[in-house]
Amino acid sequence: MQSPSRLVWSIALPAMLTNVATALFGLADMWVIGRLGDAAAQGAVELGAKFMMGLLIVFAFLRTATVALTAQAAGEGDHEEQSKILTRSVAVAVAIGAGLLLVRPWAVSAGLALLEAKGEIAQNARIYIDIRYWAGTAWLLSCALSGWLIGQRRVRVILVIEVAANILHVALDLLFVLWAGWGIAGVATATACSELFKLALLIAAIAREPAASRALAAARWRSTWDGQALRKLFSLNRDLFLRTLLLTAAMALLARSGAQQGPVVLAANGILFQIFMLSSLIVDGFESAAQVLCGEAKGRRDRGRFVIVVRTAFAWAFLTGLVIGTIYFFAGSVLAAGFSTNPDVISTTATYIGWTVLLAILGVFVSVFDGIFVGAGWTRAMVLTMAFAMAVYAGALHLAAPLGNHGVWLAFSLLFVVRALGQLYLLPGLARRDFN
């Protein structure tokens, strides 16, 4: 048997590298549009990307729930159930994608109004959204397929696919924006094309799995659509949807607060958020490890294994967060300056870079706790802690308004602190209940 550290890292490292590759989508877009030196264009891409993330990320439960359910089925040694999970997840992704296309005219207008996009920024953001929106279903299907592969510890396959998609994305960004001069439309087109390419690679990878043929057959099995199995899927998905919806609302409030302070602060906050997301996605490798290994422990009802996984994941994640925070402390301003040629944006970003140092460390606890709670199926408790933290965050935004943009980032940091404390409080009782 592998040592706990080797076991955690065997999943966390490929997932970490995959997440870094994923972060390059946003970082590449921000860097390329920053070469134009237009704060309004950079702000429009930031708002357009926030809208698309807000629209789609609430359905990221497709990936998270599929990871947890597949890992639990693997822990029980139920190969047939793994095939059924793949079938159900793909069906849900297709249904959601069709629904999003139906509400497109209303969703775009309502989203831009919510983000308080006005004038030139609103027009440019709509150009970005109108192009990327059509690749939304591909993003949803990719979530379901990648979640199924991760649940079977096929994280390295995901890494290869993500790197290939990002290489294409960066190349298309350079081609469409800097060479062809398409501007904002070029950024959106590059992202949409790379998402379609990633889906094609995932389908190719899934087709090589023995369970793929069973998954196609499972669509015709009555047991696949059994009421109890569907209730379990939708119960888990519902909780994850609510958690992600609250988290998306928090990020939308962050973007909205930046937009209220003008295009320079909006662009600077967009850069800072991308830097924070880079650290978050790195640490999220341990979230993936916790999801898979805690899910397997839950399937086996193995309390000892569960406790070892929790302790090991936290130890390595905290150490990783400290390393990232240290790097940001010494080189964060230099890193941020590379994402714009506008001197006002660069100066404003340097003023607030310290918050990325703090968030790199705070994000560790939320990421690992979420992995534990999802893997063990404690999603209702996770939603409750997120709802309470969101209430604190909204109140802090109001009370910290006199502090300006520092107050915005202070409130955002409190969101992470309150979530982690809530999950820490609930963890022992939940473990005693399910592993007794």
TrEMBL record:
InterPro entries (UniProt xref): DinF-like, MATE_fam, MATE_MdtK
Can you say where in the cell this protein is located? Membrane
Segments spanning the bilayer are 7-31, 51-73, 85-107, 131-150, 157-178, 184-207, 240-259, 271-294, 306-330, 350-369, 381-401, 407-427
Q: Name one Pfam family in it.
A: MatE
Q: Where the protein is mainly located, per its record? A: membrane
Which family does the entry's similarity section mention? Belongs to the multi antimicrobial extrusion (MATE) (TC 2.A.66.1) family.
What's in the keyword line of the UniProt record? Membrane, Transmembrane, Transmembrane helix, Transport
PANTHER family for the chain: FMN_FAD EXPORTER YEEO-RELATED, MULTIDRUG RESISTANCE PROTEIN NORM-RELATED
Q: Which CDD domains match?
A: MATE_DinF_like (cd13136)
Task: Report the protein name in the record.
Answer: MATE family multidrug resistance protein
Q: How does the record say this protein sits in the membrane?
A: Multi-pass membrane protein
